[in-house]
Write a structure and sequence with these properties.
Radius of gyration: 16 Å
Number of strands: 15
Largest sheet: 15 strands, mixed
Structural class: mainly beta
Strand order of the largest sheet: 8-7-6-5-4-3-2-1-15-14-13-12-11-10-9
Shape: globular
Protein name: Glycolipid-binding domain-containing protein
Order of helices and strands: EEEEEEEEEHEEEEEE
Organism: Streptomyces dysideae
Number of domains: 1
Length: 204
C-alpha cells in the first residue's frame, strides 16, 4: 500500500497550492485512493476518496474542498451530486463521459487504468468531468492520451516500470507529459512526488 505526499502547485507560475497526503492500493473491487489536503501553511483544505472497479471505472468518488462536497459514480455516463458549504443546496449532474478528473494525482492514475494503453497503440480520446478548485465546479473536458514510452529502471527492491503519457487537451491543443509508475504519479504539470514510503503497487 503506497503512502506518500505530493506537492501541488500552479503549473504556470509554480505558486504552491497544497500538499496531498495519500495512500492507495489495489483491492477486491479494483483500486482505492484516499488523501487529505493541506494548504502551504498547514491548514486542512480538503480530501479525496476515489474507488475504481476492475475496469477502471469510478464506482465511488467523494471530494471535499472549501466546504463544498461532491459525490459521484459511473452511472449513465457519470453522475454526481454537488453540495454547497451550508448544506442547504444540492445540485445533481449527469454527463455522457467516461470518468472524472481534477487536480488530484489520483485522477491521472484512474484515467490510465480506464484506458489500458500500450506503447504501440494510437492515441485514445476520452471525455472527463473535471471538478475545478476551489469550489469543485464541474466542467466537461475532452482529452487525448497516448502511451509514448515504457521504461524499466532497476531499484534496491525490484525493477520499476515507468510509463510516459502524452496528454492533449482537445479544445486548445495544449500537450503535456505525465509519468506514472504503477499507481503513483512521478511527475506531471503542477504535481511533484515529495515522499513515498513504499513502492508503487503493480497492477496485473
Amino acid at each position: 500500500m503506497p503512502r506518500g505526499r505530493y506537492s501541488l502547485h500552479d503549473p504556470h507560475d509554480h505558486t504552491p497550492l497544497a500538499e496531498e497526503h495519500f495512500h492507495c492500493a489495489p483491492g477486491p473491487s479494483g483500486w482505492r485512493y484516499v488523501s487529505q489536503l493541506t494548504t502551504p501553511t498547514g491548514d486542512h483544505s480538503g480530501s479525496v476518496d476515489l474507488t475504481l472497479d476492475e475496469l477502471g471505472r469510478p464506482i465511488r468518488l467523494e471530494l471535499h474542498a472549501a466546504g463544498w462536497q461532491v459525490r459521484g459514480a459511473a452511472l449513465d455516463g457519470v453522475t454526481w451530486v454537488r453540495t454547497d458549504p451550508t448544506g442547504a443546496h444540492a445540485t445533481e449532474g449527469n454527463v455522457r463521459a467516461h470518468a472524472f478528473t481534477g487536480t488530484s494525482p489520483a485522477f491521472l492514475v484512474a484515467t490510465t487504468r480506464l484506458l489500458r494503453l500500450t506503447p504501440s497503440a494510437s492515441a485514445t480520446r476520452v471525455r472527463l468531468v473535471a471538478f475545478t478548485d476551489p469550489v469543485l465546479a464541474p466542467r466537461t473536458v475532452d482529452q487525448s492520451w497516448a502511451l509514448v514510452k515504457r521504461e524499466t529502471h532497476g531499484t534496491d527492491n525490484a525493477p520499476l516500470t515507468v510509463d510516459e503519457y502524452q496528454v492533449t487537451a482537445l479544445d486548445t491543443g495544449e500537450q503535456h507529459a505525465v509519468h506514472i509508475a504503477g499507481d503513483v504519479v512521478l511527475a506531471a504539470p503542477g504535481i511533484e512526488l515529495e515522499d513515498l514510503d513504499s513502492p508503487p503497487s503493480v497492477f496485473a
